[in-house]
Write a structure and sequence with these properties.
- The chain is of the alpha+beta class.
- Helices cover 51% and strands 9% of the residues.
């Protein structure tokens, strides 16, 4: 076949695929063979094909639900493509007039065909166009916003600098996280990376492109090369993909907006790349059948073996991304088994020709990169909208494809038949076990072993001779004591079975002896029933012989039931194990595929966020690519986010690579075989491009550093001027001191504010009273001691008092750490030298007192401070401990004000105080468990505050009033959304993650509701920000300014707040 014939055949195949897509959308039929039959009968006339299917569908049951993203299997020799989405303009034809239906179909087809003839662009491509337009519009609109976006670029370029050996991220330029997820997955396929980087445009590219395909694909290919080269060698933490997105936007013209599906975009991207490489391949291999590297990398072949209306057939088809249904399956192998078998295929294995139809798929050739599309969206006919399937679906890190290969067809059929037989036997065993575990004929059922146990307990209970209502005294006053009167004996009752007031003791003794005779296992409780509770039901009359026979039977039956149950459970476990190991022999483990990338979606069908987990073979670890954030991850995190069933996040695209083809993920030069890294991997033109961009970034950092240096110099000059002015003013008003002052005496003047103040008020006054009290107590014990001895005794007295406070087991409302820094030090085992110097500082306070005894002690203390040598006390360590205490006090103030505002329901004002209280407290607790406050308490109120704000903002949005809607969204954008990464960063905190899911679900619930177009637009703009799973905090509010509290005031106010919390519900109990 010549090159021209090959091109014509490919064009014909694509045109046939377009007709199939249009026919599927109009009729809703997903059976590929039926669609092809309709086209053959109608000779390509769509109107006649629709009429044929309409009559056919009247006889054949229709599929009861349509999928949101439909997948078509093409019977040509090229690929399986993803069908276009249904048109958003729905025509409601509920009448019975068939002519109206035909006219509507004809009109729809005519418009679709006219658009294709005029532009050469299919509906599928137009759908992608609408998304790209929306992305660019979002990017441009973001430049006009006045408030700071949480993902805005940091003005400091050093914060945007790439860390050594860290992968480069991709900036989200407006709802393009789907683009980032796909591009990063493909970029980390090093063979694909090499193909793109070393792609050289055809020689005729300098001329005007021959057709629209070349005009579109070749510039896009060049832009993709630039993007890949930056991902390889850029010094930036993340790069901007706007160039590639702009090319995509220019390729299609549309103004509508919709959410883009990753699998559809991946297919279209590979289709474009295939076309670009096809142009190059045709130029390089004139006269030969060109080899397309994209086809060789991503496309495989399968053999379709089936029966259609009693006639057998075999077709070989190509496939790219292989579609799999998720609903109803627990793991990937179950999905594959279901996808490989369609319809009833018994006739395939029998010599008889029956009228049943069905087919099997057997892979004849697997691609090096095997991609599975997991269909996690379905169309809800009742609600008229697509919905996401959140079911759990497990998939392995190593997938063996042997059982699906054509060469293993016979052995696989034998194993499938064996598994089918085992599952039938398993079903019978499970039904039998269920009868043992759910015994009974009514709505409430119980395990049979427990039923027998209950019967044994009933028979063994104390016999009574009264009716259950005769021993209740209805004349007794409520809450009074009911006297136990002997019940009247009837003629038929046995005297020894009656219980009287006098014989209650003997009756109790007999009952205890009876219980000792039969040891009964109680499955739910072993505790004795309190005597004041109503009596247990018990038999009226039972003889010893009857009880002995009954106990013997019940014991034997219960033992038999337990043995049967164990045998059934063991048999079921053995069958499960046999099924699991059915394909574990070496002959069925020769085609290994290793998981390379998982593309994850979080959200609902109409909106959400995308990211990717990609395996780094070089470092043997998983990496999470979430737009600009690229972080280390783990298989456990991947499982939690990708399997589904836990949150709104789940995988819907899996990329496996042939484990026997290491060239897919190894960095080497194909020509020389040398290992390459960094800029060495780039061809010369791209190396120049990346180096130029790196120089621009380096210049930006240099300019930033120069600007900061100028600002710092200006601040220093301003501070120096202010200090000089203050010193001049101080000299002018300060009287001359008559006492000599040592130069070293300046050090104590800079001690913490909670140790010494300029006036005897506030902290200093409180501290001064404690100090004077210690001095008085020391003087009372030793009247004749020198000032130095008094100082030593007073320090011991004060330290003893503080030690006693530190050792008290006090509730949060009496936190003595707030009263004195030394209590904080004792709690945290500060070094002895730090404690001694701090205590000495307390007695060296100039405001200590005005009597001679206190003055003399103060002078001795200051002299001791001056005598302390630098090697005796590490001043850096000393300052560090006092800095920690200052942070502890600030944390306490943040928490105090935040809780006060929260209790006043001032949630907007309370949020920042609680946020910073948690952050500061977390830093303190990282150094020791007693350096901060209860982390669960702060986390609870931080979480509750965000939930309250979310509810308030949602209520404002529900009003539909423009002003209130804007206020609600402003609260979310400015307060709630920036705080979500703080809750997600510690993924071990389950309650925080549940709270985030609650907030997201609240807003996602609006997607299916009818609302005004402007509200829908605002919601669509807001949801991607809310659903962004990035844990990187990109910009945040400055901490609020704190008021100054004295030690006593802070202690008392903090105690009052904690008392109020204690009187209410316990915060640490959670939501």
């Amino acid at each position: 076949m010549t090159v021209e014939q090959n091109v014509l055949q490919q064009h014909s195949q694509k045109h046939q695929q377009t007709l199939l897509n249009q026919l599927r959308e109009v009729t809703g039929t997903t059976d590929v063979q039926l669609l092809q039959q309709a086209l053959q009968v109608s000779n390509g006339d769509l109107v006649e094909a629709v009429a044929f299917l309409t009559e056919k569908n009247a006889k054949v049951p229709q599929q009861d639900e349509a999928t949101y993203y439909q997948t078509a299997q093409i019977t040509n020799d090229r690929y399986i493509s993803v069908g276009s989405q249904a048109d958003t303009n729905v025509i409601d034809l509920t009448g019975d007039d068939k002519d109206d239906l035909q006219r509507a179909i004809a009109l729809s087809l005519e418009e679709s065909n006219r658009a294709f003839r005029e532009t050469g662009i299919t509906d599928e491509e137009q759908a992608i166009s609408r998304v790209l337009e929306a992305s660019i519009a979002e990017n441009k609109a973001s430049l006009k916003r006045t408030h700071t976006e949480v993902w805005s670029d940091s003005p400091n370029p050093h914060e945007r600098k790439r860390m050594e050996n860290c992968p480069v991220g991709l900036k989200n330029v407006g709802n393009t996280c789907w683009f980032s997820a796909v591009i990063q997955s493909l970029f980390n396929l090093l063979e694909f990376q090499r193909l793109v980087l070393h792609y050289s445009p055809p020689a005729r590219m300098q001329d005007l492109p021959r057709n629209q395909k070349e005009h579109r694909n070749l510039p896009f290919m060049q832009e993709l090369r630039h993007l890949f080269s930056l991902l390889v060698g850029s010094k930036r933490k993340y790069v901007d993909p706007s160039g590639a997105v702009e090319i995509l936007k220019d390729a299609f013209k549309s103004s509508e907006s919709q959410q883009q599906d990753v699998s559809e975009f991946t297919h279209k991207l590979l289709d474009w790349l295939e076309d670009a490489f096809q142009i190059k391949a045709e130029e390089d291999r004139e006269g030969e059948k060109p080899k397309n590297p994209m086809v060789e990398l991503f496309y495989g072949r399968f053999l379709a073996v089936g029966v259609l209306e009693g006639k057998k057939f075999e077709n070989t088809e190509m496939f790219g991304q292989y579609p799999l249904q998720v609903n109803g399956f627990k793991d990937l192998h179950e999905c594959l088994e279901a996808a490989m078998i369609e319809g009833e295929i018994e006739s395939l294995h029998s010599a008889e020709n029956s009228a049943k139809s069905g087919q099997e798929h057997w892979f004849t050739e697997l691609p090096p990169v095997l991609t599975f599309e997991l269909s996690r969206f379905e169309f809800n006919q009742a609600l008229g909208r697509p919905e996401k399937i959140h079911n759990k679906l497990e998939f392995p890190s190593m997938l063996y494809m042997d059982r699906y290969m054509d060469r293993n067809r016979e052995i696989t059929r034998i194993k499938r038949e064996e598994i089918r037989r085992l599952k039938e036997h398993l079903t019978v065993l499970q039904q039998r076990l269920e009868r043992y575990l759910s015994y009974g004929s009514g709505p409430k059922r119980f395990p049979l072993a427990d039923v027998l146990q209950y019967a044994m307990e009933f028979a063994s209970s104390k016999p009574v001779c009264t009716s259950p209502v005769e021993d209740i005294d209805t004349t007794a006053p409520p809450g009074g004591t009911i006297a136990q009167l002997p019940p009247p004996a009837s003629a038929g009752e046995q005297p020894d079975a009656c219980v009287s007031a006098e014989g209650s003791g003997s009756g109790l003794q007999a009952s205890q002896q009876q219980q000792q005779r039969v040891s009964i296992h109680k499955p739910f409780t072993q505790s004795r029933v309190p005597p004041d509770l109503p009596m247990h039901p018990a038999p009226r009359h039972i003889t010893e012989e009857e009880l002995r026979v009954l106990e013997s039977c019940l014991h034997r039956w219960r033992s038999e039931v337990e043995n049967d149950t164990r045998d059934l459970q063991a048999s079921i476990s053995r069958i499960h194990r046999t099924i699991e190991l059915m394909y574990s022999d070496k002959s069925m483990m020769q085609v290994p595929y290793r998981l390379h990338a998982v593309l994850v979606h979080e959200g609902q069908a109409n909106a959400g966020h995308y990211w990717a987990y990609i395996y780094d073979r070089h470092h043997q670890r998983w990496m999470k690519y979430n737009d600009i954030a690229v972080t280390k991850s783990s298989w456990e995190e991947l499982v939690r986010d990708s399997f589904g069933g836990y949150r709104n996040a789940s995988a819907y695209c899996l990329m496996y690579i042939d484990d026997k083809k290491p060239f897919l993920i190894q960095e080497f030069d194909k020509e020389t075989g040398q290992m390459l890294s960094g800029l060495d991997k780039l061809p010369p033109d791209l190396k120049v491009f990346v180096e130029a961009d790196n120089k621009l970034f380096e210049r930006e950092m240099e300019e930033w550093d120069a600007l900061q240096a100028r600002k710092l110099q200006q601040e220093k000059l301003a501070l120096a001027a202010a200090a000089a002015a203050a010193a001049a003013a101080s000299v002018a008003v300060q009287p001359m001191s008559t006492e000599p002052c040592s130069p070293d005496n300046t050090a104590p003047q800079h001690d913490p504010e909670y140790m010494e103040q300029q006036s005897p008020s506030g902290d200093s006054k409180h501290l001064q009273e404690d100090t004077e009290r210690a001095i008085s107590k020391a003087a009372a014990e030793h009247d004749e001691k020198s000032p130095e001895a008094l100082l030593n005794t007073a320090m011991k007295v004060e330290y003893t008092r503080l030690l006693r406070l530190a050792q008290e087991d006090t509730p949060p409302e009496r936190d003595y750490r707030l009263q004195h820094v030394i209590v904080f030090f004792i709690h945290n085992e500060a070094p002895k030298k730090i404690v001694e110097r701090t205590l000495l500082m307390q007695f060296a306070d100039r405001n200590l007192g005005f009597d001679e005894r206190c003055k003399s002690i103060m002078k001795v203390a200051r002299a001791k401070l001056e005598l302390i040598k630098p090697d005796e006390v590490n001043m850096e360590e000393y300052e560090m401990w006092h800095q920690d205490y200052r942070i502890f006090r600030e944390t306490s103030v943040f928490l105090l004000i935040g809780l006060e505002l929260f209790m006043k329901k001032s949630f907007v004002e309370a949020l920042m105080y609680l946020i910073y209280a948690y952050q500061y407290n977390k830093e303190l607790l990282a150094k020791g468990p007693y350096r901060g406050h209860d982390e669960e308490l702060i986390a609870h109120y931080r979480r509750e505050c965000l939930l309250k704000l979310n509810e308030y903002a949602a209520a404002l949005f529900e009003t539909g009033e423009e002003a209130k809607v804007n206020t609600g969204l402003s609260i979310m954008n400015d307060l709630v959304v920036p705080c979500l990464p703080l809750l997600l960063v510690d993924e071990m905190e389950e309650k925080d993650m549940v709270a985030v899911e609650d907030m997201r679900n609240r807003w996602c619930s609006y997607l299916g509701q009818e609302m005004e177009p402007n509200l829908q637009e605002k919601l669509t703009d807001f949801l991607p920000k809310l659903l962004d799973c990035s844990t990187e905090i990109k910009s945040f509010h400055e901490p609020p300014k704190l008021p100054s509290y004295s030690t006593l005031e802070l202690f008392e106010r903090f105690g009052r707040v904690m008392t109020s919390l204690t009187m209410g519900r316990t915060p640490a109990d959670g939501r």
